[in-house]
Design goal:
alpha+beta, elongated, Actin, Chain A, domain 4, 5 domains, Defensin A-like, 18 helices, 21 strands
Length: about 650
């Protein structure tokens, strides 16, 4: 292995789970909070990317979290190849269920750096469920609802699945990317830092070496407290030659971490609500991850499930790896007697686009939809002669698009025409949870698409939970916003329709000057209100609703005028068409007229009469026929009638028609 890879592996001895940094920005408040406790230096890199800075052979070197992951994968590949005696090229890599698109792609990139082809990204709870499902296959054939409780060193996932035969159907997932054993260690470190400060009047919080040694001792104590009621934390010459020794009870450990433990249970409850499965219908709660061994965590889960026994028959440290190995075998062609499992995972957040008015978040793929999935939704242009449409892609649960997370943006060229030109937007999420969005203009066939990349970072698991909490917290405010947005959209539509109605032929001739002025003034006021709203000036919803009501009344009056004019126009055309048919029939019955007409002309006229009579009958039976069709046939028949009258005049100087 190269010196640089040896350095990266050595970094892992004190590096706090790289999974917490992947996909985050240096300015993220969570990163800033963790920096205070980490025994290494983190700086801001390109695009605010957090970089781990270390000294190596007298020089400073910087590594991103993806490089750390790459080094781990490289070492694992070397161990596997040494054991198998053959090269390893393809791998299945597991990630927390709430890993976003950016983090999943970064994991694939890390595999590529390590010389590996990542054939599938698999969610950790789903991998654990595979291990559970295979363990149960021999003695249970029916449907089972299971809850996978995955509390590891840095992340926490809860996933609820229904297993029926070989089908693993994920119903819901929830979690927190910043909740795990390291947080429990941090609480213990903070507790003992304060104790050391009280005893010795010295603050070690700014000394990375002392913090690292204390953290190691705290992690050891945490493990001991899983089977003992009291243990001792001892560090020789912790700081300035001062030895540190203190005891901690299991009760104290539980007390300083109780808010974390309660949050775990709250997330379990939230996941159950999302899955629409009652906790009494959960057949097994499967514990995965080293931190799931903590007695208090198990006690709270037992209490939550009303004493139902927890499933702990699989090794919590190996379950995820075992499930991933089985899935890798399924995806490979060289293995025999492998179960043909079907995995159906879900999206952690709703995915959609921003609509024109007020940037409403219009959901295309709802949260907890099974993947892979592909959904298409029809939209229309919002302006006349629109050259292009901006497609803003978001994920989140808030009605206002700007309150959600922007994933990407692209522009679709459109057909020039009145507003309302159709276009289709398609969202596609593949087996690895990677999102592709495309848009197509229905008239021109123009197509454009975007695949959400690392530069368009999606939300971390912690941020996803935060977004869901915010959606519940601000529900009333969101409903007010949504109501106002709908009024604004209706007002804009009303103004547009009134303008179109006023542009209809002869409408202004029917309106009195006073009524015409009243309508135009109301339109101007409404347009001013729309402009003020667009410029973020506050307008009470009552004012908007009042003007909408007034304009709707005017629009209904104009539509009635237009409808009446349309009715009169159609009635006039129908009468003229009926009269034309009558006169042509009489003309054809005039002596010697058919002698002058050629057989082709005679057939053409008779066919035109038949079509016209059919149209008249259809209208009589209230079948909807566009007036343009009647006018076209009337024009054709009038031309034929003029020709026939000219022929008749040769025989009869005085026309009877």
């Amino acid at each position: 292995m190269s010196d640089e890879n040896l350095l990266l592996i050595s970094l892992l001895l004190f590096f706090i789970d790289a999974k917490r940094l992947i996909g985050r920005k240096y300015s993220d408040p969570i990163v800033q909070k963790d920096i205070m406790l980490w025994p290494f230096k983190v700086t801001s890199g390109v695009n605010d990317k957090p970089m781990i800075t270390v000294k190596y052979k007298g020089h400073e070197k910087q590594f991103c979290a993806e490089e750390i992951s790459s080094a781990v994968l490289t070492k694992m590949r070397e161990i596997a190849e040494a054991y198998l005696g053959s090269p390893v090229k393809n791998v299945v890599v597991t990630v927390p269920a709430y890993y976003n698109d950016s983090q999943r792609k970064a994991t694939i990139d890390a595999g590529a750096i390590a010389g590996l082809n990542v054939i599938r990204i698999l969610n950790e709870p789903t991998a654990a469920a595979i291990a559970y499902g295979l363990d149960k296959r021999s003695n249970y054939d029916g449907k089972r609802n299971i809850l996978v409780f995955d509390l590891g060193g840095g992340t926490f996932d809860v996933t609820i699945l229904t297993i029926k035969g070989d089908v693993f159907d994920v119903k819901a997932t929830a979690g927190n990317t910043h909740l795990g054993g390291e947080d429990f260690d941090n609480r213990m470190v903070s507790y003992f830092v304060e104790e050391f400060k009280k005893k010795n009047k010295v603050d070690i919080s700014g000394n990375p070496k002392s913090l690292r040694r204390l953290r190691t001792a705290c992690e050891r104590a945490k493990r001991i407290l899983s089977f003992a009621f009291v243990t001792t934390v001892e560090v020789d010459a912790l700081f300035m030659g001062i030895d540190f020794s203190s005891s901690i009870t299991r009760a104290k450990f539980e007390e300083i971490n109780m808010d974390f433990f309660n949050e775990c249970i709250n997330i379990v409850d939230s996941c159950l609500r999302d899955s629409k499965i009652y906790k009494n219908d959960i057949d097994d709660a499967v514990l995965v991850g080293g931190s799931s061994r903590i007695p208090k965590v198990q006690d709270l889960l037992l209490e939550f499930f009303k004493g139902k026994a927890l499933f702990m028959n699989i090794n919590p440290d190996e379950a995820v790896a075992y499930g991933a190995a089985v899935h890798a075998a399924i995806l490979s062609e060289d293995f025999k007697n492998v179960p043909n499992l079907v995995l159906r995972d879900v999206t952690p957040l709703s995915l959609g686009i921003a609509t024109y008015w007020e940037n409403i978040m219009d959901v295309v793929i709802p949260r907890n939809t099974s993947i892979p999935v592909k959904k298409t939704k029809r939209y229309v242009t919002s302006h006349d002669n629109q050259l292009g449409v901006s497609i803003w892609v978001f994920e989140g649960e808030r009605p206002r698009a700007s309150d959600n997370n922007l994933l990407g943006l692209f522009i679709l060229s459109c057909f020039l025409g009145p507003r309302g030109q159709p276009l289709d937007v398609c969202f596609s999420v593949d087996e690895n949870g990677i999102l592709t969005v495309s848009a197509k203009d229905i008239i021109t066939g123009n197509l454009n698409e975007i695949t959400i990349t690392n530069d368009k970072e999606r939300l971390s698991k912690f941020e996803i939970e935060k977004k869901i909490d915010e959606a519940e917290k601000y529900h009333v405010e969101d409903m007010k916003f949504l109501k106002k947005a709908k009024v604004i959209s209706a007002l804009d539509s009303c103004v547009y329709n009134i303008k179109n109605a006023l542009n209809k032929k002869d409408v202004n001739l029917i309106l009195s000057p006073q009524k015409s002025e009243q309508i135009n003034n109301a339109v101007i006021v409404a347009m001013n209100l729309l402009g003020m709203n667009k410029n973020n000036q506050h307008i009470e919803i009552d004012v908007l609703e009042h003007h909408l009501k007034e304009l709707n009344s005017m629009l209904n009056m104009l539509l009635k005028i237009v409808e009446d004019m349309k009715f009169l126009r159609k009635a006039t055309v129908m009468s003229a068409l009926d009269s034309c048919v009558y006169n042509i029939t009489n003309a054809l019955n005039t002596k010697d007229v058919n002698l002058i007409l050629s057989p082709q002309e005679s057939e053409k006229i008779n066919n035109a009469i038949i079509v016209a009579m059919n149209l008249l009958d259809k209208n009589k039976n209230n079948q909807q026929i566009d007036i343009d069709v009647f006018e076209h046939h009337l024009m054709e028949l009038n031309s034929m009638l003029k020709m026939l009258l000219k022929i008749v005049s040769l025989f009869c100087p005085i026309s009877l028609f």
